[in-house]
Amino acid sequence: MRAPRMTGVIDRRLLVNYRVDPDALREILPPVFRPHLIDGSAVAGICLLRLTELRPAGFPRAIGMRSENAALRIAVEWDERDGVRTGVFIPRRDSGSLVNVAVGGRLFPGPHGSADFTVRDSDDEISASFTSRHDGSSVRVATRVVPELRGSTLFADVDAASRFFRGGNVGWSPDRTGSRLDGLELRTSAWSIEAGEIDEVHSTFFEGGAVPVSAAQLDSVLVMRRVPVTWVDAGRIALPAPRVRSRGAVG
Q1: How high is the mean pLDDT of the chain?
Q2: Number of folded domains in the chain?
């Protein structure tokens, strides 16, 4: 079944990025993918996302939903007949929306775990956190929006970061059986990223969880706000045995 074409607004998106030893991702990535490297390092992180006006394409904004969501993301590349493609592998997702939890992995790619979110934001400061109801995994981020990206070892500036993430606009998630990956492509005519200055970051996934502490180094936080988007079905990839099993949440 093809995923329905969806449209909405990324009201706020925090991209919390880590420089990761590629060897630490071998047990997480399906064999069809390899890490997308920058200067020999893999790029992984947490996306904390508020969606508004989310609805099937062509439907009025008035029926659109609002939700807080999170995703564990790993930048990947893979081979196709016309060359190497880049995107992201999303091994788990969490949502504060009961609707997203119910339809995730059915009508929309990627099973979603249920989580409690707390968010406070203004024009200049954003803090967001969540705790999974499934396994207690948690993330906490506090950042300030600043004119320039400073301190990153992955990206020279905001423009470099923007090009990297825009080039990874196809996301792949395990289905509920773990026998295939379902893809979604994000499209927008108003792509925009701002730099964040880190005040606080905590993530159980990069502090001895899915990725060992010694293998991950916090790099940067980026911010997207009020970006209209559309998601379209990007196809499916069958997974060879042994099957990859979805964990059904994010951290």
Answers
A1: 93
A2: 1
- In-domain check, residue 251: no
Name the pTM for this structure: 0.92
Structural domain contains residue 246: no
Q: Which helix or strand (DSSP H or E) is residue 125 part of? A: strand 125-132
Instruction: Indicate the SS3 state at residue 152.
Output: coil
Q: Inform me whether the pLDDT recorded for 108 exceeds 70.
A: yes
Residue-wise pLDDT for 147-165, tens only, equals 999 999 999 999 999 999 9
We report the CATH number of the domain holding residue 229 as 2.40.400.10
pLDDT digits (tens, 9 = 90+) for 81-106: 999 999 999 999 999 999 999 988 88
Residue 74 CA to residue 90 CA, distance in Å, equals: 7
**1 occurs within a structural domain:** no
Instruction: Report whether 99 contacts 167 (CB < 8 A).
Output: no
- What is the helix (H) or strand (E) element at residue 161, kind and residue range? helix 158-166
Q: Are 150 and 221 in contact (CB under 8 A)?
A: no
Question: Residue 147: which domain range?
Answer: 6-238
Handedness of CA 204, 182, 14, 213 (dihedral sign): positive
